[in-house]
Amino acid sequence: MGAVLELRDFSQKYQRRQLFKRLNLRIDRQACIAITGQNGAGKTTLLNVLAGLTNIERGTLEIAPKMRIGYMAEQLAPNGLTPKTYLRMLGELDQFSNRNLEGQINELAYEFGLAAALNTPLNQLSRGSLQKVNFVQAILRTPDILLLDEPLAGQDGTTQMRMIHWLKDYRQKGGAIIVGTNNAFLIEQLATEIYELDAMRLLPIEELPQPEEKVMRLEFATTPRSLALPATLQQLALKIVDGTRYVVLYANIKNSDELIQAMLKSGFSLRGLRYEVL
To answer: What is the rounded CA–CA span in Å between residue 157 and residue 191?
Structure first.
């Protein structure tokens, strides 16, 4: 299968500092490349280059014909437009029919918990809601390639899982994803290749270092308290802490996705998730 995007022999300076040196990157359909690295390593700059927002000093960027690119920057600059107006303007650039565009906006807004904020000006939204708008604008026009810069930042656990599941489905249907992130859970769930951006180069790594004793800690809200815990809980969870307002579950990483789905189907709301040593 041919590459949908390929960067060759790429070198670039930023404010006289050599940021990249002879860097190469290619991605095929149904792949997700995760790019990790310390703050300032150049993840955002690299994504800007791939999106065509920054000129290339040396090297070539080749994108397969007729490929649509969706780009979610690290932050969406707020303005006085409402999300609905902003998203409608972007959709009209691609000549969506008004009927299809309205339906797509409403469907995605509902899926990612944005429906109540569609008519609130962007400059009055919380950071989390702004990031939801940012995510929706990137996927609105059904791109072939998605470039994402820390897409889960500022999101609650439930929204994170909705985004991850949408991205999994998108990739399985042929989409290609390049994501700049240090979020270990996102990488574990989505990435087919992992690179660390270090010393001006992309260094391939097999997997993120994870000690065997490291597990997922999942916290769910229990309101209303009459909700029944799913029957599969005992098989999937290593430890259960059943409180008055919250249920905290510990699970092996490989079981965490199935456990989250079981709890969400039972009506619980995911409040947070993180790695811990049990």
So the answer is: 19
Residues 6+ apart with CB under 8 A from 83: 109, 114, 117, 118, 119, 120, 122, 125, 133, 136
pTM summary value: 0.82
Q: What per-residue string of b and e applies to 67-85 under the rule 16 or more CB within 10 Å gives b?
A: eebbbbbeebeeeeebbbe
DSSP per-residue codes, 33-62 = EEEE--TTSSHHHHHHHHTTSS--SEEEEE
CB 31 within 8 A of CB 1: no
Instruction: State the amino acid at position 23 in one-letter form.
Output: L
What's the longest Cα–Cα distance across the chain?
Answer: 62
Write down the pLDDT at residue 158: 84
Instruction: Assign 140 to helix, strand or coil.
Output: coil
Query: For residue 138, what is the enclosing H or E element?
Result: helix 127-139
User: What is d(CA 177, CA 194) in angstroms, rounded to the nearest whole number?
Assistant: 12
Q: What single DSSP character describes residue 117?
A: G
CB 44 within 8 A of CB 190: no
The residues, ordered by sequence, that sit 6+ positions from 39 with a Cβ below 8 Å of its Cβ are none
- Whole-number Cα distances in Å, 57 to 24, 40, 54, 108, 147: 14, 19, 9, 38, 21
Q: Which two tokens stand for residue 242?
A: 């059943």
Q: Which residue has the tokens 């930042």?
A: 153
Percent helix / strand / coil, the chain, rounded to 5: 35, 30, 35
Domains, the chain, in order of start with CATH, read 3-204 (3.40.50.300), 214-277 (3.30.70.980)
**Residues of the chain predicted below pLDDT 70:** 1, 95-99, 207-213, 223-226, 278
